[in-house]
Design brief:
The protein starts with 8 loop residues before the first helix and ends in a 13-residue tail after the last helix. Strands 1-9-6-2-5-3-4 form a seven-stranded mixed sheet, sandwiched between helices. It has a two-stranded antiparallel ribbon with strand order 7-8. α6 packs parallel to α7. It has one domain. It has eight helices and nine strands. The protein is globular. It is of the alpha/beta class and 254 residues long. A hairpin with a 7-residue loop joins β7 and β8.
């Protein structure tokens, strides 16, 4: 007796993957796959001293957070999608190391040349890079992040990266959360003292021996869809968790 098509796991899985790719393509509206920039192995060696410096820098930072927020971030048993703004990336790998206890975590990093260096850095800091963005390789990146969550790993996404506008949430993170049916945690980093770069996002670098107030808030399950309204609401909540005590420097036009 022949098995029905619907009961064949290979066909069902192939159909599911096709649906994910089609829905992601429509949601992100990204062009076909393009080239992922990389750097040769010998150049990765040049990143190693900087990674060591960053680790030593982290050791000087004092972290304060409400106890209930620590319980949210330390909750085990299910993979978590962490969402935070692009200009808070400096502490991304450190909070995962301190509060997720070595739990595997993947991070979305641009497929650009700058992203290649950032990817090498985060690899040395314990974050497994997934290359892509809303403007390049978005469909492939979403599929890989969904697979990571379904495998039990954590994922970190900056919804306004890699080019901005700053503090404007794009739907990619919510598409990943809905596809994987993952728990979503909004992360806040309030720097008492930091330098800010004259980049598009006013990137924060906390001063050595300064204090950072962290917040970790689990998003309501009814907010996890990829609609424009849901993205605006989660963006509003994320902005409230990430106050800027110091404005970014004025960027000069070239």
């Amino acid at each position: 007796m022949h098995r029905s098509v619907a009961s064949n796991p290979l066909i069902v899985n192939a159909a599911r993957q096709a649906c994910v790719i089609c829905e992601t393509r429509a949601g992100l509206k990204t062009p076909p796959a393009t080239y992922v920039h990389g750097i040769p192995p010998w150049r990765r060696i040049a990143v190693w001293p900087l990674a060591v410096l960053v680790r030593l820098w982290w050791r000087t930072i004092r972290v304060i957070a409400p106890e209930e927020d620590f319980r949210v971030v330390r909750l085990r048993g299910e993979p978590t999608l962490f969402i935070f703004w692009h200009n808070r990336l400096f502490l991304a790998a450190e909070f995962a190391r301190r509060y997720r206890g070595g739990h595997p975590i993947y991070g979305l990093i641009s497929a650009s040349r700058d992203g290649a260096w950032l990817s090498a850095m985060f690899s040395m800091l314990g974050v497994r890079p997934v290359r892509g963005s809303s403007s390049r390789l978005g469909r492939e990146a979403v599929t890989e992040l969904v697979e990571a969550l379904e495998a039990g790993c954590d994922v970190a996404v900056t919804p306004d990266g890699p080019r901005g506008p700053c503090y404007e949430m794009k739907p990619g993170a919510l598409i990943v959360a809905r596809r994987a049916r993952a728990r979503v945690v909004l992360a806040g980093f309030d720097f008492e003292a930091s330098w800010r770069l004259s980049s598009w996002d006013g990137f924060h670098i906390p001063r050595p021996f300064s204090t950072v107030h962290m917040r970790f808030v689990e998003a309501a399950s009814n907010d996890i869809d990829d609609s424009a309204d849901a993205a605006r609401e989660l963006g509003r909540q994320l902005r409230e968790l990430n106050p800027d005590r110091k404005p970014p420097p004025v960027r000069r036009k070239g």
